[in-house]
Structure formats: structure tokens, C-alpha cells
Amino acid sequence: MIALALGVGVIQGCKDDDVPSTSDITQDSTPYVLDYGNFVAPEIASDNPLTVQGVKLGRMLFYEKMLSGDGSQACASCHLQEFAFSDTATFSIGIRKKPGKRQAMGVFNMAWNSNEFFWDGRAHLLRDQSLKPIQDELEMDETLENVVAKLSASETYRNQFKRTFGSEEITPEKMSLAMEQFMNSIVSNRSKYDQFLADSTVFTESEKRGYVLFNTEYNKFFPDESGADCAHCHGGDNFENDEYMNNGLDGDGQFADDGREKVTMNMADKGKFKVPSLRNIAVTAPYMHDGRFKSLEEVVDHYNTGLVASSALDQALEQTRETGLMLSTQQKADLVAFLKTLTDESLLTDPRYASPF
Question: Does residue 15 carry a pLDDT above 60?
Fold first, then answer.
């Protein structure tokens, strides 16, 4: 397993008069090495390789409340580590006490994301995504110009930008690159499921049955051999498929949120949303883009018998609508038991990703 680079311990909060002068600071391009275990190596953007100092700066900014209009919120306010960097609120409340429009997605394994960001994919790169909540009036409601001015008044930040980029000048682009680096550094690969694959733990009988159901295809002609068919959409190391799909939440004419269609302007994308990772799913409730389901049991019931027909419904799901997945009460419980093995308990407390202040 690849060892982590040194120098990413908890950052000590300090007053500006305790830090060295910017003139004494030089750029430090020491690479930050990801510990990605048995995952396929991620494709990190060549123009923004991870460095120890860049990840450190991004971490500072992720937890920095100066990024909000009234200094009360940071990115981490709606992406809490103990919930796999998601939010337990159906819609996060911004600094003006207004709710957002979609449920906050978990932030982990971003380095393996290859199909844009947000539920609708409106941000092409992670660096683009990082700046949008700052400017959203429903979220942090601040201007980038004001953020730059506030950070530039801090010698601590001027020093860290110089360590990272070779210049103390602070710009939105540099901010976004640093936050991209930090978010790309957050890796979740130490769940019970991962330990099971490494033969370092065993599944319970219920978890074993759920594992089989998860990976077995639906077959309406042989109900006794039919499974939950989850792996088609939630497969691979990260339990997702880098696609946008309509998963039968609403019918034509009932959509409160058009999803991906707002970005592509293609009617075929109505009601399609990003397929999220199922890693840490047990700690990231509520579920779906609008947080309509409060429990994993509700989610399983939706796919078992609750799919709503629409013109954009994914065809694989449409094929199951007539009979449902035909899961028994025990099978549904087994499936939930397996999903809970995807929780990476170490991620939730890992000091590398915690607040540096």
C-alpha cells in the first residue's frame, strides 16, 4: 500500500503575528501521495497535481468561514466529516436562513469522478464546483472579490498561498485549485466490504445474502433466481457508474426539478440526476437529490415496488416495473445489511480530513 506523504498533520491555528514574514517563504512542491489501496489509480489533472502544501491550503479553505458573506459558514458546514462529508438536513440552510434546492452530496473519492459535478453536472471540473457555493445566494452568499480581500489581509493565508503556488497573490483560480486538491485527497476505501475483499474480516450470513442479491441480475422468468440488480448502476470500486439517470421518482408532468435537462437543454435528460456512490450510504441520509427518503429501507422499497413511469425512466429500471424486484422482507433486510458494510468508519474521524483550526 502506498504510504502517505509526511507533513499533512493537523494545522495549528495561529495569529498572523506568530507566522514568518512572506519574504522568508518559498514554494514547496513536495508531492502528496494518495493511499488508494486496491483502487485503480485516479487520473489527477496534469495542471493541478496534489502537493502537500496544496492539500493543506485546500483543507484550510474548506473549513474557512471567511468564505461566507457573514463569516458563519464554511464548505464543511454542509459537508460534515462524520456523515461522510454530506449533510443530514434535507436541504442545507445558508447564511440567510434559506434552504438550498438539493440535498448535499457526500465529498469523498472525488479523484475517481469523471463526469462533472453537482447532481446535474453543471460544474465541469471539481475546481469549478468549489467556487459556486460561495457565490450562491442560498448558500454562502459572498463574492469572490470579497473573499480574496479577506484572505489577502491574513499573513497566514498569504504565506500558505506562496508555499503552494510560489506567490502570495491570492486569486479565485488558486483557491479553486487548492480546494480541488484537498477534495481529491479524501479517499474512502477502508470499509468492512474492503476488509472482506482483503480476507481480513467475514460477512454475517445476512450480509453475504445481501452481497449476492446486490450483484445478481433481475430475472422475471425465474423469480427464485432473480436479484436486486444494483451493480449495473452502482458498480466498480466506487459503487457508481459515472452516469446521469432517471430512477423513477416522478412521472411526466410531476417533476419539481428537471435535473440534468437544465444543463444540457435536452428533453431526454428530464429528471436525470448523477448516480452517486453507495460507499458510506448508511451515514449519508436522507437520500435522492431532494432527500425524500429518510432510510435505506425506503430506498429499497422504492426500487422494489415504487418506480414511477416516465418517458425518461432508465430502460433497465423500466423492465422491472411490471413485477417489481420481487424481494421478500428478508431479502430487503439482507440488502440493507450489505449496504451497511460499505461504511468506512475511519473516514468519519480521519484527522487528515478534519478541521485544521
Answer: no
